[in-house]
Amino acid sequence: MKTAKYSSSLRIIIDVIIENIYKFCKENPPLERNGFYDLISGKALEYQGWRLPCGENEFKEKKELRLGKHIEIKNIKNNEILKIKNISKFCRDNNINFSGKYNGW
């Protein structure tokens, strides 16, 4: 796997090829395999400053697509429809947990 470490100003600090993720993470704490697996599978765009090689424009486009996602939900009490971008925050604000129970939403 080819990856690169980026600074906060998005400049490449180091460009590496990782042949053994387990060994690489063990030699570079606090890195963990799960973070790199999320990166490889596309679940994450970055992990601890590391990301897969791509141009700045491509990276920004991918990031903007993720930030623009939302869901629409309907309140069954008053038929109000809401667009939600941050589901976790919405659940915290409305005292909703993920156990399958709902409070009118």
Walkthrough of the structure:
- The chain is of the alpha+beta class.
- It folds into two domains: 2-66, no CATH class; 69-98, no CATH class.
- It contains four helices and five strands.
- Strands 2-1-3 form a three-stranded antiparallel sheet, with no helix packed on it. It has a two-stranded antiparallel ribbon with strand order 4-5.
- Strand 1 and strand 2 form a beta hairpin.
What is the makeup of the main sheet? 3 strands, antiparallel
Based on DSSP secondary structure assignment, what is the total number of beta strands? 5
**Portion in beta strands:** 15-25%
Percent helix range: 25-40%
Order of helices and strands: EEHHEHEEH
What topology, given as strand order, has the largest sheet? 2-1-3
> Structural class, from helix and strand content?
alpha+beta
Total DSSP helices? 4
Task: Quote the average pLDDT.
Answer: 81
Rg, please?
19 Å
Note poorly predicted spans. Answer: none
Amino- and carboxy-terminal Cα gap: 43 Å
Shape: elongated
Give the count of structural domains: 2
Please supply descriptive tags for the structure shown above.
2 domains, 5 strands, elongated, about 100 residues, alpha+beta
Brief summary of the model shown:
By secondary structure, the chain is an alpha+beta fold.
Please outline the helices and strands.
Blueprint: E1 2-6, E2 12-17, H1 21-27, H2 33-41, E3 50-51, H3 56-67, E4 71-74, E5 81-84, H4 87-93
Antiparallel strand pairs: 1-2, 1-3, 4-5
